[in-house]
Structures
1.
Amino acid sequence: QKEVEQNSGPLSVPEGAIASLNCTYSDRGSQSFFWYRQYSGKSPELIMFIYSNGDKEDGRFTAQLNKASQYVSLLIRDSQPSDSATYLCAVKVYGNKLVFGAGTILRVKS
Amino acid sequence: DVKVTQSSRYLVKRTGEKVFLECVQDMDHENMFWYRQDPGLGLRLIYFSYDVKMKEKGDIPEGYSVSREKKERFSLILESASTNQTSMYLCASSPYSGSWTDTQYFGPGTRLTVL
């Protein structure tokens, strides 16, 4: 049973818009959540993590966590063509392991 | 900066060959991980190690083994490569401080093709 779900996309947004990427998870006991960005042919790179309910902002990125709804999202403000990539949501489980969603493809059109 | 390196970016092997993929990290991290990534399936954990000579199976260990003789190095071994092991292989490392925010850092990946 898949533990982390993401819409595969592609999600297309115009340059300058807000991109909203969503992720749901099944384990109610999950405590921390990570967003990675992966460019085509490259390895994932960490954007940010969140472990408290609410919002966490880092530059143009905002992560939102709602543990009651088992939902985590990533907002990208002022989207740029360079943000076009696959965004992976990951949930930490025991033993420092991460369970990844399959990723959402984001396309920012200029 | 954390640096995780993998021995090859691209590798082509024949069915039945024994294949070694090597991963080295320079941050003295306790934990190391091997994943494979396939289109539509995301990253799937093959094996991980939480200390030297310690290993634990991930979600898809069949057909693979690992070795961790030194803290900085974690090797993935395909005992007898098969075409269904054609994939992108990603190594990652993370510290272990007991914090929920311990993060995994990835190497550049090895794209393995088995003919």
2.
Amino acid sequence: KAGVTQTPRYLIKTRGQQVTLSCSPISGHRSVSWYQQTPGQGLQFLFEYFSETQRNKGNFPGRFSGRQFSNSRSEMNVSTLELGDSALYLCASSLMLGEAFFGQGTRLTVV
Amino acid sequence: GENVEQHPSTLSVQEGDSAVIKCTYSDSASNYFPWYKQELGKRPQLIIDIRSNVGEKKDQRIAVTLNKTAKHFSLHITETQPEDSAVYFCAATKGGGADGLTFGKGTHLIIQP
């Protein structure tokens, strides 16, 4: 069974640009969550999608958005990038109320 | 919202000794408490979890205890081995699974040979 796949693995963007990250969950998993990991703030919850609906959202500005497709694949978008958005972005998938499996993450560097 | 405090931030133990990491949470509605291990450059991986209707759970050398009244839970690793060296994160959520996990800041566990 393939694990959670995130693309791309690494990304370098310039301040002010926008970026789209992709996450393919484990087959059969309909819940996909996104997390931001930084040395200073640790792991912080961005949002969670289930059956194409955003069910839960963390405390991030509106520049951070996401969506989920009918095949459960999810994308997150960050607009008007800031230096502070540099982080490892992790996606996790799970069955309803089940164990969360994380992807390898996308390392975003904003210069 | 939920707040999870984790201690210590760094823990160094001799190989073969036990290690204990403690977390407290603030939201009494939280009902699922997973622990993740993250090795350098790798993804977080679930090592054990506990739900609020259980007080203790064991899996070989790893155990987790939960005290709902005091709102704290702990990770116990016995007979530590070099491969246990990593950063460990506790988390809490009301939803179960990956939904809305609030993480502690992490504990860097160092196993001294």
